[in-house]
């Protein structure tokens, strides 16, 4: 083979390698940056009565089941709107609470308030979930709760490794926090009293509050935190 033909052959192979490399690079970039819309299969808004010196005050618990084919780490922002009253709440991925129940991932918060502790408007709300690629999902939720508490406010005591609950609510859970005050886990209560050790609570849990739910009327009560004494 002549020297000129060898040079042409080498240039051709170099060009093939060049285009193959950039084709693979483009394909990898396209696949890795693919944008898929997040999904909201289900959500709820629940009135929560919080313990206060002058009596229970209204907040509400807002959670959705969130799904994204690119993973939960791809989700970025969660918004809740009441368009009629022109109200808006925003939660970033650093702010929302995440928990898994029956294989579904829930995100949201236990404590959204209206200005100056005003009663929250009943009616229709709009949920918007954004991922980091800018894709979004929307869902409408209805918030319809009693204007006044139906049940007495519950209580929680923990002393020497034993918990005691007074509650007429149908479902009761302990919401546990670590020593920095960050949410750690929930523990369902099947009895109004018992041993903390039997609840499977992490050894890093330092405080807990009672979350009592009345699912029929979409209301809950959330007590102040108490120290977990083992």
Give a written overview of the molecule.
The protein has 230 residues and is mostly beta strands. It has 3 domains: 1-33; 39-143, Sandwich (Immunoglobulin-like), CATH 2.60.40; 155-227, Sandwich (Immunoglobulin-like), CATH 2.60.40. Helices cover 13% and strands 47% of the residues. The chain is built from 1 helix and 16 strands. It has one helix spanning 3-32; strands at 39-50, 57-67, 75-82, 87-92, 97-101, 104-112, 123-131, 136-143, 155-159, 162-166, 171-177, 183-188, 193-195, 207-214, 219-222, 226-227. The strands form 3 sheets. Strands 1, 2, 5, 6, 11, 12, 14, 15 and 16 form a 9-stranded mixed β-sheet that branches. A 4-stranded antiparallel β-sheet has the order 4-3-7-8, with no helix packed on it. Strand 9 (155-159) and strand 10 form a beta hairpin. The relative contact order is 0.16.
Summarize, please:
With 230 residues, the protein is mostly beta strands.
Secondary structure blueprint with pairings:
Layout: H1 3-32, E1 39-50, E2 57-67, E3 75-82, E4 87-92, E5 97-101, E6 104-112, E7 123-131, E8 136-143, E9 155-159, E10 162-166, E11 171-177, E12 183-188, E13 193-195, E14 207-214, E15 219-222, E16 226-227
Parallel strand pairs: 1-15
Antiparallel strand pairs: 1-2, 2-6, 3-4, 3-7, 5-6, 7-8, 9-10, 10-13, 11-12, 11-14, 14-15, 14-16
Radius of gyration of CA atoms, rounded to a whole number? 26 Å
Q: How far is the first residue's CA from the last residue's CA?
A: 86 Å
Structural class: mainly beta
Using the coordinates above, name the CATH class of the largest domain.
Mainly Beta
Overall tally of structural domains: 3
Mean pLDDT: 85
Beta strand % = over 45%
Biggest beta sheet attributes = 9 strands, mixed
Q: Using DSSP, what is the number of strands?
A: 16
Number of helical segments? 1
Share in helix: 10-25%
H/E element order: HEEEEEEEEEEEEEEEE
Catalogue the unreliable spans: 21-34
Architecture per CATH nomenclature, i.e. the level-2 architecture of the largest domain? Sandwich
Given the C-alpha coordinates, what overall shape results? globular
């Amino acid at each position: 083979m002549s020297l000129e033909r060898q040079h042409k052959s080498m240039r051709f192979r170099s060009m093939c390698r060049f285009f193959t490399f950039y084709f693979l690079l483009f394909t990898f970039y396209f696949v890795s940056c693919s944008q898929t819309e997040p999904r909201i299969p289900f959500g709820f808004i629940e009135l929560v009565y919080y313990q206060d010196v002058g009596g229970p005050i209204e907040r509400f618990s807002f959670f959705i089941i969130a799904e994204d084919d690119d993973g939960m780490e791809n989700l970025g922002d969660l918004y809740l709107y009441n368009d009629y009253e022109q109200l808006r709440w925003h939660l970033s991925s650093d702010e929302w609470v995440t928990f898994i129940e029956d294989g579904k991932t829930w995100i949201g918060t236990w404590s959204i308030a209206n200005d100056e502790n005003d009663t929250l408007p009943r009616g229709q709300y709009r949920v918007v979930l954004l991922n980091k690629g800018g894709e979004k999902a929307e869902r409408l939720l209805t918030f319809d709760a009693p204007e006044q508490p139906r049940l007495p406010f519950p209580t929680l005591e923990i002393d020497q490794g034993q918990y005691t609950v007074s509650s007429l609510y149908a479902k009761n859970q302990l919401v546990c926090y670590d020593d920095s005050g960050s949410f750690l886990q929930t523990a369902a209560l099947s009895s109004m009293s018992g041993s903390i050790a039997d609840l499977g609570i992490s050894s890093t849990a330092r405080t807990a509050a009672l979350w009592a739910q009345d699912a029929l009327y979409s209301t809950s009560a959330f007590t102040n935190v108490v120290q977990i004494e083992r």
